[in-house]
Amino acid sequence: MKMTELQVTRRVAGGGYIDPVTRQWIQSSNTYTFAAKGSLQPFASGKTQLVLPQGIKTSEAYNYFTDVKLYTTDDSLNQEADTVLIDGVVFEVFDQEDWSHFNLKTVHYRAILIRKDKL
Prior knowledge:
119 residues; mainly beta; six-stranded antiparallel beta barrel
């Protein structure tokens, strides 16, 4: 399976963050970027129960399987969704599934990425 490295941009609401790779506290400057490796696959609507927002085509969305937990928007935490750049287009993490609690060989997450200009 081909692994794709994406540059993830994360906005931070507080005064710092824990680096997802080193697990060290980093003082914040509002955003930071890190690399995530994973499997980037086309979004197939017939293979999931998730329904895309109205007006979003399956060609404007991807599945991304990675061992890094990507964030969606969470108003209660004042947290914006992570964004990634794919072929010069900004995509936002629309949904994230935690598959780390299952008895699988690898701990991983599934993120649904949607073109940010379409949301």
